[in-house]
Structures are given as C-alpha cells and as structure tokens.
Amino acid sequence: MAGTLAEKVWADHVVRRGENGEPDLLYIDLQLLHEVTSPQAFDGLRQEGRAPRRLDQQLATEDHNTPTIDIDKPIADITSRTQIDTLRRNAEEFGVRIHSLGDLDQGIVHVVGPQLGLTMPGITVVCGDSHTSTHGAFGALAFGIGTSEVEHVLATQTLPLTPFKTMAITVDGTLKPGVTAKDIILAVIAKIGTGGGAGYVLEYRGEAIRKLSMEGRMTICNMSIEAGARAGMIAPDETTFEYVQGRPHAPRGADWDEAVEYWRTLRSEDDATFDAEVHIDADDLEPFVTWGTNPGQGLPLSASVPAPEDFTDDNARTAAENALEYMDLVPGTPLKEIKVDTVFMGSCTNGRIEDLRAFASVLEGREKNPDVRVLVVPGSARVRVQAEQEGLDQIFLDFGAEWRQAGCSMCLGMNPDQLAPGERAASTSNRNFEGRQGKGGRTHLVSPVVAAATAVRGTLSSPSDLGVPTAPSDLQPVA
Amino acid sequence: MEAFTTHTGIGVPLRRSNVDTDQIIPAVYLKRVTKTGFDDGLFNAWRTNDPDFVLNRPAYKNGSVLVAGPDFGTGSSREHAVWALRDYGFKAVLSSRFADIFRGNAGKQGLVAGILSEDDLEQLWKILEQEPGTEVTVDLENRQAHAGEATFRFEVDDYTRWRLMEGLDDIGLTLRYEQDITDFEAKRPAWMPKTLPARNAETA
Fold it and tell me: What are phi and psi of B94, to 5 degrees?
C-alpha cells in the first residue's frame, strides 16, 4: 500500500470518514493535560453534565506555572496557585491521573509522556500545548489543540479533523562537531519560514535524522510548530524501540513483539508522494542562532545581524525592522559580538538528560563569564534525579550556574523565572517572540552547546570558539 | 455558540505579519480559570507601550473586524487568543494566512477567520487607513467582505462555515457517532498506552 507515515497513522485512527466536506472523526489514543489550557475544558464538562470517556487515556502534570525553587512552599503568585489548585481539584473530581509538584513523575508534559513509555510509535497524542509535536519523534501523530478541543477529547476521545497535507524534510549527510539537532530545526525554519509548514505534517527523514538519538529527534519534532506545521514525525526504528522498551507503560512480553511488528510497518512507502519536499544537507550546517523575534529569523552563528534592506519581501522587511528595534541590534554586527545577560538551559525543546549532558560537557573545567546568569532547569523531576546521579549538577554548580527544579521555567513568562525588560538571553527554548521570556526581554534561540559556550564567553559563541575542539561524540551521545 | 450570518463593524487595519499568540495575549493573562474576561490582555504590550498602535487610535478603538497581515495566530495553541479577541468585541479576523491551530480555535468560538488574497488584503488595508472608522460587512453566507464601494471574497471551509452559521456545538455533533467510537475502541490492540493503573519507574 502506498502512503506516507502520517497517512498510515491517520488511516489507522479514522473512526468515521467525513462525507460532503465534513471532517474525519479521528480517535485519540492519549491526551496530556496541564494547568493552563484545561480549567475551562473541565468546566465545560461540568456545565453539560458530561464525564470523561476514557480516564485511562488521560495524564495530567503541572509545568507552566510551577516555580523552580522553593517548591515545598505554597506558590507565591496567587493566580498561578489558583490554576494549579484548579487542576488538582479537577483531577480529583473527575479521576484523572496527575503528577503534581514534588512528585517524581512531575515535569513538562512533553518530557513526562515519553519518559513513562506512554508515548509510542503510531499513536495519536494531543495536548492543549503547541509543542505536542514533540511526540512525533516516535512516529506518533501528535499535535497541539485549543481548550475547546481538550474538552472534546475528554468527552469523546475523538476530534473532527480535516486531513493534513504532507511535507518531506530530508536531511542528508553528517553533522559537523558542535552542530546538533537544534541547529537542524532552526535551519529548517529559517528555510521554509514560520508559515511554511501551515497545513502540513512534516516528516523528517534522511541519514542525519536516522543518526540522531531520541532526544535529538524530539528537539526537531518539538519545533515543527515554529514552522507553522500541525505536527512533525520521524519513522520509528531500532533507536525508537530501544528507547521505549522497558519503560513503565511500554508493552511487555508477547505484546511487545506484536507492537514492534506493527511499528515496523510505520514508514513512508518508497513510492509514497508528499505534497511538498525540502532538502537540507547536514554537512553544510553550522551552529544556528536567531537574531529576531520569530524563530524563522535565524542565521549561522558566523553571520552578522542582517539589515532590513536585505529582504525583498515587504512583510519580511517590515518584520525585520520591528525585530531589530525590539532586539536593539544594529545591522552588520557580527552575531558573535552580541553580549548576553542570561543563559537559559531547559524547556521541552532541550530539557532532557542528553541535553544536560551536552551542556555539561562544554562547561566542565571552564569558567563562567562573570556578567552572565546561568539557569539550568531539568525538563522533569526524573531528569533532575538522573543528572544528579551522573554528577552533572556538580558541574553546573561549580561553574556558577543555578540548578533548579523541573518545569517550563524561563521558556515562557508564566512563572517567577523571567527576563527583566531589556535583558538579553541565549536560550535553548523554542520561541523568541516579543516578551515571551518576560516583558521586554530579548531572546536568542540556540542549542545547548552554543548556550554553554555563550555562558563561558559572555557573547553568542559556538563550542569551537572555546579553542578546545570538542569531539562530536561528546556533543551527540547515542548514534 | 451564537449563530453567525453577517456582521457589520469598524475595520481595524493591523499592518503586521506573524502576529503570534504571545502578542495577541501574553502568557501572564493565561492564569485565569474562566472562559471570559480576557479583553484587557488583548495585544497588551502594544496597547500599553505604543500610543500609535491601531487600537489606541480613537477611530479604530471600537473595531470589530480585524484585518491582519499573513501568518496571524502563530505560536502557542492558547485558545485564550480567540477569547481575548472575542471579549474585546471582534467578530471576524481577515488575513491572507492563519496558523492552523488558531483557525481551528476561532471556528469553535464563533469568530470568523476568513482568508483574503494578498492583493485584497493590501487594498482593504488602504481603504481602512484612508478613511479610519470605515465599516466592513462580513457576509459569511456569500463569503464576502464589503468596505466602502469594494467587495472582497474570502475563504472559509464549508464545514466551518456551516457550523458557524448554525451555531452548532462540536461535542454534540460528534456524540451522534458514539456507536462508531465504541466499535472502534473494541478493535484497538490491548497494548495501546493506558495511563491507568498508574505505573512509574518504581512500580514497573
């Protein structure tokens, strides 16, 4: 049967084909919930006297609002506390499994799902969070939804959806040392633009993708939404199976064998046609950084701040003008001369154990630039525990970084970790929008190793700027 | 949901591309647990810091038809962006391209998200800028927007248009197919992910 990976997973979840322009009704295997986009959904159920259809396909965790210090004390911000309390009350009232602050399985939803083995190849995953695309790294069809849809899934375990178009993003070749999954996805977004993926499911394929670890693949799929795509997917392979096997909710015994047999069929057929195709050569990639206020405004770190006149398209030129003003940057300035005040290491994009290892590998034995504040925030409580077992926390603390509790932290301005107005950050997160990390804050998106080198030098830097070449194996553990 | 057929109100030209949902409503306003009262958060940074921002100009202040640049509503999935537009008084947003999640969210809250061609967008902007306070009529049935003497065609998919015009609730529509859902569930493999009974690294 011809077909792309996305079409196969879609077809296996159609409850009812839509007729006469009606959307298909798609079955949802797993819904992840958090405190920000769920209160109104539970309230809707209550108002209509509806109950969740499948409690065994829901999982809630607290992440967006949670502080990353003093988590044993009541949350100081009253509205944050209200939101967390509301989630806890809703979970209790409706019987939804929840991992609250202080629990070992608490953390960012997109870190917790894979960690528990709930995220599997070929399933459909939704969450009221656009970075749900992360789970596509397993060959799942995973996408962010709005609060009305969260309520819809709670009530029916389905969503009415119009089929997406498919786009193949082929990344051939081999990454150079110091170039990582984050640089691939920033280069993809710079190439196709923040709206380039609108209406599409992106399938990342090619040699450079196959060689990535699951963590690297999650980083890439996570940021699919920044190209406007509904979802990003990578066909499951041995790397995927190895990651899933043995996790708490992974299939076991005969179930495991049956599951793997099915999962092996989840790949785009050789004669499958995509609605669009994009090619990128990994050999040509360099560490990437954003200079503007959307994730498509990025360049190789060796470049200089562009001038608005460099853009022929009217909208792009105006966007560049606005961005340069907000970012307080002068065209022609080498990106490597931009001084930063804060380095943020964490988020659902780069808050997993491998990211922390890569960050630590560059910091180890080096000194922090005294003018830079460094915040290291694990994506989940378990990642924190594992990092401490590996001694990474000591490397961070010796370096002068702050080692925090798990959560979304400085990725978005919803909890106490925020940039002050005018403050500039090199951030391993996913969005450089105006005010995203705090009102008036300025964000440059980077990979963990670039974030680390920047913390050492105080200006945007790549590991190679530190003089000591870093072996590729240090930067991309697990092939 | 209130049914929508036509609406006439002041058109607001927002000459910006890539207006992401963090600009439409900053995260700090997302902490509420209600579904209304988000109007104060709408475009908060621009309304607070930029006296020339279009909604700070008296002629546009009471606008209800937003005409925005391409890639409107990108970024976070927050439905609060739609609630904020709705609570402020907007009934329709016209743009040459919308982010997918935003467009889906709009359709569920009775906010029309109509797609104009880039040329028409430019023309409509000019009309609204030359005569601030010009009213735009959004005729959903015929998928047309009228401003001054000009008429522009916009796109809305058939299904969304039908639901908006009927004011139908999505969950109610889906529950007509409950038997299909039950039949589908009966065929799912036993090893598909289940969050209950809960397991973790200690109990696995």
Answer: -115, 135
Gyration radius of chain B over CA positions: 20
- Chain B CA closest to residue A129: B77
Question: Residue B32's pLDDT band (boundaries 50, 70, 90)?
Answer: confident
Compute the average pLDDT of residues B61-68.
Answer: 98
The DSSP letter of residue A437 is T
* Axis-axis angle for helices A78-94, A39-48 (nearest 10): 40
Find the CATH number of the domain harbouring A313. 3.30.499.10
pLDDT score, position A192? 96
Considering only CB atoms, which chain B residues are within 8 Å of A443? none
Residues 6+ apart with CB under 8 A from A223: A133, A185, A186, A189, A232, A295, A349, A430
Mutating which of B15, B17, B18, B96 best tests the A interface, going by the most A Cβ atoms within 10 A?
A: B18
Residues A257 and A331 occupy one common structural domain: no
Burial A101-115 (b: 16+ CB within 10 A, else e): beeebbbbbbbbbbb
User: Helix, strand, coil shares of chain A as percentages rounded to 5?
Assistant: 40, 15, 45
Strand partners, B6: B139
- Best CA proximity match to B86, nearest among B70, B68, B108, B69: B108
From chain A, the residues in CB contact with B110 under 8 A are none
pLDDT digits (tens, 9 = 90+) for B107-159: 988 999 999 999 999 999 999 999 999 999 999 999 999 999 999 999 999 99
Same domain, A110 and A133: yes
Interface test with chain B among A46, A109, A149, A318, by most B beta carbons within 10 Å? A149
Q: pLDDT-derived band of residue A1, with 50, 70 and 90 as boundaries?
A: very low
Smallest Cβ distance to A36: which of B30, B82, B98?
B30
- Which of A27, A316, A434 shows the shortest C-beta gap to B184? A27
Compute and round to an integer the Cα radius of gyration of chain A.
21
Give chain A positions within 8 Å (CB) of B23: 433-435
Alpha-carbon dihedral sign for residues A461, A465, A466, A471: positive
Q: The domain containing residue A317 runs over which residues?
A: 289-475
Widest distance between CA atoms in chain A:
65
Confirm whether A282 is domain-assigned. Answer: no
- Dump pLDDT digits (tens) for A341-364: 999 999 999 999 999 999 999 999
Alpha carbon distance A96, A89 (integer Å): 10
d(CA A148, nearest CA chain B) in Å = 7
Q: Determine whether domain B6-168 maps to CATH 3.20.19.10.
A: yes
Domain count, chain A: 2
Do residues A331 and A254 both lie within one domain?
no
Residue A348, annotated as binding a ligand: yes
Contacts of A143 (CB under 8 A, 6+ apart): A125, A126, A132, A133, A230, A231
Read off the pLDDT of residues A3-29 as tens digits, 9 standing for 90 and up: 999 999 999 999 999 988 889 999 999
Name the pLDDT band for B36 (thresholds 50, 70, 90): confident
Asked whether residue A312 falls in the same domain as residue A240, the answer is no
Three-state secondary structure of A96-109: CCEECCCCCCCECH
